[in-house]
Write a structure and sequence with these properties.
Blueprint: H1 5-12, H2 16-23, H3 32-45, H4 51-58, E1 63-68, H5 74-89, E2 93-98, H6 110-121, E3 126-129, H7 139-150, E4 154-158, E5 167-171, H8 173-186, E6 192-197, H9 202-217, E7 224-227, H10 232-244, H11 246-250, E8 265-269, H12 272-284, E9 293-296, E10 313-315, H13 318-330, E11 339-340, E12 343-345
């Protein structure tokens, strides 16, 4: 049976109100000697503080809700690690929810809405949305979060959003993608195909726009643009579609060793996990990377060190992004919305030696 606070108070020889102030985190704390006496009594009896009582005393639950798409994706797990570090420094715990396990009966957005509603019901002090935002936010989600913010909660999104009054951690997806193309152009690359990710996600859309800007500045257009899921399987399937299409034959992929007059085509993937799926698809067709086809990604997820050839990519400070998002969410006065940028990393998959 759970030990009651009144038992701790009797054991310590103090009033119930004093025991509550010590163990539930009230700003009105007794003298140090009394506090130590109450804590010792609680430890001896095995008392566990009531979270609801603590929240009332502190006017804070000490909880942060974090919504990701797929916790198995290194992009999200690295961001989550950063969120957790900053949250612990602020004496908060992180509640985590993924949105990739929707059932067949779920409508789009149901999983994220359910996660947000659960966080609101737990009275989390803040909610961080790490998953790429939709071109048009679910009105149900916007309404729920607008009310949450009006009631004193704080919301931070990683990337632009239409959620009213949410704080935004900006990410240099557009210019980063353009700079990646620029670095490849400087190495003499002239032929590109794009694995564009999902149509309805802002991150994919903005990165593809950046790829196209970099190409347009050199007077070029992509030889093909193929959409797919923001996953390794999505990259695999989109690459097979590219190889099997007429456009794939036109750009000289589909026949081992055939590179064309302007060197091998370079596949630009909207994120690293798609790029890794693309590399697997190319190998399944007997194609060599980078001799037959080159590949570049975006994010520089930590697990890239386990893959060969090394993937050329645009490196984002993913863990730092998580820390910044949590600091924005937990800053009492509200923190100015920063913009995160990265840098191009050239590796063997796009011809770097």
């Amino acid at each position: 049976m759970a030990v009651k606070l009144s038992e701790v108070a009797r054991h310590a020889g103090v009033s119930l109100a004093t025991a509550s102030r010590v163990l539930n985190g009230s700003s009105r704390t007794p003298a140090a000697g009394i506090s130590e006496k109450v804590k010792a009594a609680a430890a001896e009896l095995g008392y566990v503080a009531n979270a609801q009582a603590q929240a009332l005393a502190r006017q804070s639950t000490g909880l942060v809700g974090l919504v990701v798409h797929d916790i198995a994706d290194p992009y999200f797990s690295t961001i989550a690690h950063g969120v957790q570090q900053a949250a612990l420094a602020a004496r908060h715990q992180v509640l985590l929810a993924g949105t990739d396990l929707e059932s067949d009966d779920d409508a789009p957005g149901d999983a994220e809405l359910a996660a947000v509603n659960a966080f609101i019901s737990y009275r989390t002090d803040a909610i961080i949305l790490a998953a790429s935002r939709l071109l048009e936010e679910d009105p149900r989600l916007s309404k729920a979060l607008a009310q949450y913010i009006a009631n004193g909660g704080r919301v931070v999104t990683i990337g632009a959003t239409e959620i009213p009054k949410a704080q935004v951690l900006g990410v240099d997806n557009h210019d980063g993608a353009a700079s990646l193309v620029g670095a490849l152009l400087e190495r003499g690359r002239r032929r590109f195909a794009i694995l564009a990710g999902p149509h309805d996600r802002n991150t994919a859309r903005v990165r593809v726009a950046g790829f196209n800007k970099g190409l347009a500045e050199a007077g070029l257009e992509p030889l093909a643009v193929v959409h797919g899921a923001f996953t390794s399987q999505g990259g695999y399937d989109a690459t097979l579609e590219l190889l099997d299409a007429d456009a794939g034959k036109l750009i000289g992929v589909g026949q081992p060793g055939v590179a064309g007059d302007s060197g091998p085509v370079c596949i630009l993937a909207a994120n690293d996990v798609m790029a890794l799926g693309a590399m697997a698809a190319l190998r399944s067709r007997g194609l060599n990377i980078p001799d037959d086809v080159e590949v570049a990604g975006f994010d520089d997820i930590p697990t890239l060190r386990d893959h060969f050839p090394g993937l050329t990519t645009y490196r984002l400070p993913l863990e730092e992004m998580g820390k910044l998002a949590a600091e924005m969410a937990l800053s009492p006065a509200g923190q100015a919305s920063p913009n995160v940028s990265g840098r191009v990393v050239l590796r063997e998959s796009a011809g770097a030696q």
